[in-house]
Amino acid sequence: MASASLQFFAFILALFGVFGDIAATLLPHWKVNADVGSNIITAITQMQGLWMDCTWYSTGMFSCTLKYSILSLPIYIQAARTTMVLSCILSAFGICITTVGMKCTRLGGDTDSKNNACFAGGICFILAGIFGLVPTCWYTREIISNFLDQTIPESSKYEPGGAVYTGFISAGFLLIAGVIFCSSCFKRQQGAWIYPPKQHHFSSTEQESNAGYSLKDYV
């Protein structure tokens, strides 16, 4: 019962991780630059993401521009696109697989099959967490290095946006969920290996007596 509750808790964490992963991939808030001019009317907030760049004016206007060209983007943005999409795909596969392998569901067949499915889902969550953690760390490093560069003007410097923090938290949720799923299945399999099911062996005299008894019944 405790293992089933732990798996359900890990599944909830994985759901939060999947939704946060998708939101971080699509949102344009990877880095934000607030450029406030001498007049409040000219105050703007520029946001850049993996797929689009958006500008928010103080007048209430909001405009976005899609990044159509892939080869013209910096290498860290190209890598972030690829790894975040892979993270979303792997986490979605993990949700489907662990739904079959969880103990609180009636899918997946026998116990061994459910344990294998649960372990495979945990591996998907761990890989999804790694793929989500790498681009956020790399992207944050680029933002910090550009911010500390004295040759870059103040108006062109950015800070990490909400999508970066969402990516960090989602990757942590996916990693924790994957470790819980894998450890729960591993402990169960290890217990089965250490303590195999006992088999009752009949001695030769018992077998002969049973055989004789059956023959007498038919005489």
UniProtKB/TrEMBL annotation:
Gene that specifies this protein: Cldn20
Domain of life of the organism encoding this protein: Eukaryota
UniProt-listed Gene3D superfamilies: 1.20.140.150
Regions crossing the membrane: 75-97, 118-141, 161-182
Primary location recorded for the protein, binned into one broad class: other
Name this protein carries in UniProt: Claudin
GO molecular function: structural molecule activity
A GO cellular component annotation in the UniProt record: plasma membrane
